[in-house]
Amino acid sequence: MSNERKNLTTSWGAPVGDNQNSITAGSRGPTLIQDVHLLEKLAHFNRERVPERVVHAKGAGAHGYFEVTNDVTKYTKANFLSDVGKRTPMFVRFSTVAGENGSADTVRDPRGFALKFYTEEGNYDLVGNNTPVFFIRDAIKFPDFIHTQKRHPQTHLKNPDAVWDFWSLSPESLHQVTILMSDRGIPATFRHMHGFGSHTFKWTNAEGDGVWIKYHFKTEQGIQNLAPELAAKIAGENPDYHTEDLFNAIEKGDFPAWKMYVQIMPLEDADTYRFDPFDVTKVWSQKDYPLIEVGRMVLNRNPENYFAEVEQATFSPGTLVPGVDVSPDKMLQGRLFAYHDAHRYRVGANHQALPINRPKNEVHTYQRDGQMRFDNNGGGSVYYEPNSYGGPSESAENKQAAFPVQGVADSVSYDHIDHYTQPGDLYRLQSEEERARLVQNYVEAMAPVTKDEIKLRQIAHLYKADPEFGQRVAQGLGLQVPQHV
């Protein structure tokens, strides 16, 4: 570091003469409003925290790269997947879901798995979790679901009644809740968990042919989880345990890595598959659609500044590149709006221009103005389209791929859908030791619920998934499986 003296300045670059004493009327005050340096310091300090994320508030991030290891160009024209060996820089943010910014890392909660690829055709965001499914399949239920994970408006305490009341009234949540209550509900570190795009997406190749796909990221460090007792102990002793682990691993050169795979479904199979392939509460059997290797993600550089890079990073499943399209997944469709809108509220209308979010290639838009516009705002160039002045124009070859839609416009219920087969399969796939821990985690999580009606409703769902599953949880709670199940 240079020993050359640097003058402290104001935010507008003027040198500061005294940073220890405010300007007052005499030695005892009062303070004068003319002390603009004092006013600027206080005003900026009051605004040093952008609003935290409503969900995924607590997180850690790192830089890295993605390297293609298998030729998938027959499925997608995405430029960053165009050549084996091609590397694309990335930024990744891991997070918990429900807690506030200061909450503990080792709670039982899904983990966010948000990836930003800085491709030559613009940024591509893949915003998933460490689970292949989610609690709900329709975005209209998302605000209510998240409310149940937050604090009671009167007591300001977490509310198990709300959590289990919602889940027991939303049987589509059973698959995700069962994963959450399993050993994988508390990963040992961010490095020791898989990641998933969760939703179904569409890949389109250069000829315009498409396939439905699901993303899987398999950790090369191996799956490791924490026992609840150890997780609780760590939460009290080091609530930033996962954040610290990720930083230290990268700092010492132990770079975490994941292999990316996709499942590929022909478009026509969507009409005949035994589960709705666009239902994010369901998985596709890997026996039906095996994993195909695509590439490898490596994280090899820590952020220089947490706020600038991790807190201000914005991700959206609507940040797409040519060759990657969306599907009719109802939860995904809602997220396409909600995530970008959250960033406009939290960080600002020009969040995409911040260094951590800015694409590596040049941006040509007709968007102008807005808070915190810190580039040249388009200068004097043409600011509308269509125009006769040679301004940027659309490229038809990069339109999203078309797909047919049909039916009556309606708010369609899905009460008739099978919510039980896959959670039951998940229970039966586990060893007896894993089942015992799963049942115990369910029992401990549901025990604080004050209404037996809520417990019995959830037990009925478990019984429908697997009778033994429901009976064991009922026994643990000192209840009987409802007779009408």
Total count of strands: 10
The whole-number mean of residue pLDDT values reads 94
Total tally of structural domains = 3
Oligomeric state, counting identical vs distinct chains: single chain
Low-confidence stretches: none
Feature tags:
alpha+beta, 485 residues, Cytochrome C Oxidase, Chain J, Catalase HpII,  Chain A, domain 1, globular, single chain, 26% helix
Structure description:
This protein has 485 residues and is an alpha+beta fold. The protein folds into three domains: 1-48, Cytochrome C Oxidase, Chain J (Irregular); 59-135 and 185-358, Catalase HpII,  Chain A, domain 1; 421-476, no CATH class. The chain is built from twelve helices and ten strands. Strands 1, 2, 3, 4, 5, 6, 7, 8, 9 and 10 form a ten-stranded antiparallel sheet that branches. Helix 2 (142-149) runs antiparallel to helix 3, helix 3 (160-168) packs across helix 11 (452-465) and helix 4 runs parallel beside helix 9. The longest helix is centred in the C-terminal third of the chain and has 17 residues, at 330-346. It is globular, with a radius of gyration of 25 Å. The mean pLDDT is 94.
Task: Please outline the helices and strands.
Layout: H1 36-46, E1 59-68, E2 87-96, E3 111-119, E4 122-129, H2 142-149, H3 160-168, H4 174-181, E5 195-196, E6 201-204, E7 210-219, H5 228-237, H6 241-251, E8 257-266, E9 291-301, H7 306-311, E10 324-325, H8 330-346, H9 421-429, H10 432-446, H11 452-465, H12 467-476
Antiparallel strand pairs: 1-2, 1-9, 2-3, 3-4, 5-7, 6-7, 6-10, 7-8, 8-9
